[in-house]
Amino acid sequence: MERLVAAVLAAGVLQVLLATADDHYLLSRIAFGPCANQNAPQPIWDAINKFDPQVFIWLGDNIYGDIRRPFNFLVKERTIGPWKNAPRFIPSSSSEMLSRYNSAKNVPGYLRLRAKAKVVGTWDDHDYGLNDAGKELSAKTTNQRLLLDFLDEPQDSPRRKQDGVYTSYTFGPPGKQVKIVLLDTRYHRDPLSSDGSVLGDSQWSWLGKELRGPPSAITIIGSSIQVISNLSGTTGPLFYMESWGRFPKERDCLFKLINDSKRDGVFFISGDVHFGEITRYDCAAGYPLYDITSSGLTQAVEKVLPSPLRFIVRFLAWFTPSTMRVKNQNCRYRSCTYGEPNFGAIQIDWDASPVNLKIQVRDINGLPVTGVDISLSALQAWNRTIKAGQDQRHCTLEVKLPWIVRYRLAILVYSVLALLLLAL
């Protein structure tokens, strides 16, 4: 216990040193992850600590702060089905949010990580305060303060004075700089069905300055929700997931900003969906844009079923069409998704010529389940006179698939249900 206390005290000193030395800190190992239920066991920190990251990035749902009510469909307040008349999720009080943050902050494995790595992050809906919530949430100002306290943000930080938790960091000496841009996809977000704004005017203005600013060898854009993948385009009308693809105009603006900024070395990291995958879009900039999704540290889609039935989740993941998912020999399963607890790992080999990036989604034991090796030269637009996306592979958006392919998951599920009803 004394060693743990000493490590925590040292963590505060380390955070200060790193914060003042960003410009010269050569960054070669980064870990990231979202979706950590403070009430669930969190053994995955052992694997993260073994990876020994210099920086760890929270991607949201750092706690589950809202209250999830049970499925009810035969009582007065029904929380499921077409007859639903009550919300399934409701906000909790600020004191309860604080209590949950304190529980999360004192998980032993996380304490060990804080003692040796710089911890940064953004939020998603459950630590923002309410499932799927956007700018309408009244408690967002208070909850912003609670998140920044959890992240040990200095009291004089600009993040405490602005509307939203977006920010950026730059590490490394000239020529080997890594820029980490963390977006806030909650504070200013319009309703899901509106095709409105995700970031809001002030954040868009800030992001434009960040991407048009001084160049960096690598720029990592952290989004709590997926940027490249739009599985809602193929899982509907059964269910819909949040993503930038639900806001097609806004996502087009994001891609255009990256392309117009002429910034090389950009890729995304994301979370939210409770499984891991890597996606790629070749039609946005002068080079492929990757999105490495890790989700989550405790929450995972396969955990909803008993172990003998988890093959059903894997089959459905394989059967659901995805035009953007990267499928290669590094995938553990045929679907190239991973539905158990996981975290993201980025390794940068600065000594390689050209510089090499090894980006992986890793399991609870630290073993890779999917990954890509990317030469930094492949993330540079050598000839911007060529139209973005020419002669590239991952260019067909999910919503542009033929309807028989796009809706095959719904067709399968409804067909099975129809057969069961006929049998009964």
Automatic annotation (TrEMBL):
InterPro entries (alphabetical): Metallo-depent_PP-like, PhoD-like_MPP, PhoD-like_sf
Pfam families assigned to the protein according to its UniProt record, in alphabetical order: PhoD
Position of the signal peptide: 1-21
PhoD-like phosphatase metallophosphatase domain ranges (all copies): 43-283
Record's keyword terms, sorted: Signal
Name of the molecule in the record: PhoD-like phosphatase metallophosphatase domain-containing protein
Species of origin: Gossypium mustelinum
